[in-house]
Structures are given as structure tokens and as C-alpha cells.
């Protein structure tokens, strides 16, 4: 039996905000849900999930829909996003490739 996954409140708030932004921008463009869904290559049901902030919608789909309606992701300026991504790749290259579980210190209290 599959258990329901619980999400942090911050996650749910961010998804709700993204969904609201998508919905607002779609309506500003006077696009129907069917029109945006067709542009994104998804079903109207999936689009509704994005707009409702459902956490089960794939991140790639949510980001694609947001991009199509002009919702900025992480930064408005594309060059700034690229710069930030390059910085994170550089930081990641300095960190260990694998993270091992920390070993407990021996108990020397005898």
C-alpha cells in the first residue's frame, strides 16, 4: 500500500504561489486553459494541477508552463540565472562527489 507523502509548509506555499502566478499570467494573456495546455503539450487536467499548486505535478512541467506565461524562475534575467548556475556548479565541484554517513564517535566514558 502506498503512503501519502507529506510536504513541508514552505513547499506547499511555494507551489501555491507558482500556481497563482501561472493562473494570473494566463488570464492576463487571455489564454484559455485549453490553449495553454496545448502550447505546453499537456492535458488541461495537468494544467489545473499546476495552477492549484499540486505537489504531484512534475517540476519540469510546472516550470515549462510558468515560462510559457512569463513567470520568472529564480531570476528575471537569463544571464543572471546562467551566472548563478555556473557559480553553483563551481561550488559543487569543490565538494565531495559522495556524501557518507557520519560515523559516531567512540564512547570512551568508562
TrEMBL record:
Pfam families: HTH_3 (PF01381). Residues 26-54 form the HTH cro/C1-type domain. One of its GO terms (molecular function) is DNA binding. PROSITE patterns: HTH_CROC1 (PS50943). SMART domains: HTH_XRE. Gene3D superfamilies: lambda repressor-like DNA-binding domains. CDD domains: HTH_XRE. This is Helix-turn-helix transcriptional regulator. It comes from Sanguibacter inulinus.
Amino acid at each position: 500500500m502506498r503512503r501519502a507523502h507529506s510536504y513541508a509548509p514552505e513547499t506547499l506555499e511555494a507551489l501555491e504561489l507558482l500556481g497563482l502566478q501561472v493562473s494570473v499570467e494566463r488570464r492576463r494573456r487571455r489564454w484559455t486553459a485549453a490553449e495553454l495546455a496545448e502550447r505546453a503539450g499537456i492535458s488541461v487536467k495537468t494544467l489545473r494541477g499546476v495552477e492549484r499548486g499540486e505537489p504531484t505535478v512534475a517540476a519540469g512541467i510546472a516550470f515549462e508552463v510558468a515560462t510559457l506565461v512569463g513567470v520568472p524562475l529564480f531570476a528575471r534575467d537569463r544571464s543572471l540565472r546562467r551566472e548563478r548556475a555556473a557559480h553553483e556548479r563551481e561550488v559543487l565541484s569543490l565538494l565531495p562527489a559522495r556524501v557518507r554517513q557520519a560515523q559516531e564517535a567512540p564512547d570512551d566514558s568508562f
